[in-house]
Design brief:
single chain; 223 residues; four-stranded parallel β-sheet; 8 helices; 37% helix
């Protein structure tokens, strides 16, 4: 779509240095991309107040501009996400850079949700795949697994953070999931990069999908 204005929204702070190369490639391909962060206008104490409590069952993980990984309560963060998206209603597309389950919680017409895009992409490949999932934090197991189980997939979960990246740890977790019967591995966070995938894929016998790579490819196809 000629002259599309695209808002890329991280649930952390913008710009995301770890995504800079990928976003630059979008711009080089002619896309009019602007970056925003849900936490951009918040102070350190306000961000700290969004940390999960013991009662929080849905935890999100993201990055600040200083490189710090932060854990956030999805319930506490939702009003800030909604306000940020409302402020960007004039953009042709708004891409929320998070693979968390926001279906039926955010209802903007021009909103692209990686979770919805990924589950439908994998359904298009095959409906009976056993999926190995790797996310940033162990306490995300229930919510990440539930998201894919709602899409009727058999899943196993492990954790290895892209923000404290350790290639040996990621490979070990991936190989264990393959050993346990996974037909497909998904690095289920927008923080994982194509280069991280490339470090492990040749040592596995199953395909590996990185949501950032897949979502950006779709974004280029529709703009």
């Amino acid at each position: 779509m000629e002259h599309s204005k695209i808002a890329i929204v991280t649930i952390g702070q913008a710009p995301r240095k770890d995504m800079a190369e990928d976003i630059q490639h979008l711009r080089q391909d002619g896309l009019h991309v602007h970056e925003f962060g849900v936490l951009d206008s918040l102070s350190s104490s306000e961000i700290a107040a969004l940390s999960p409590s013991q009662e929080d069952t849905d935890v999100l993980v993201t990055l600040l501009t200083n490189g710090q990984q932060v854990r956030l309560s999805k319930a506490k963060l939702m009003p800030y996400i909604q306000q940020c998206l409302h402020d960007l209603h004039g953009f042709t597309w708004i891409l929320l850079m998070c693979t968390g389950d926001f279906a039926n919680k955010l209802s903007f017409k021009n909103l692209l949700l990686p979770d919805r895009m990924m589950t439908n992409l994998v359904k298009g490949l095959h409906t009976e795949l056993a999926i190995g999932l790797i996310g940033p934090e162990p306490d995300q197991q229930i919510t990440v697994a539930e998201k894919w189980q709602k899409a009727h997939f058999d899943v196993n979960f492990s954790a290895s953070s892209p923000y404290h990246f350790n290639a040996h740890d990621l490979l070990a977790k991936a190989q264990q999931l393959e050993y346990e019967g996974a037909d497909l591995l998904i690095l289920d966070c927008m923080g994982y990069s194509t280069s991280m995938k490339n470090m492990i894929k040749h040592q596995l016998n199953i395909p590996v999908i990185v949501p950032r790579e897949a979502v950006f490819t779709i974004l280029k196809a529709i703009c």
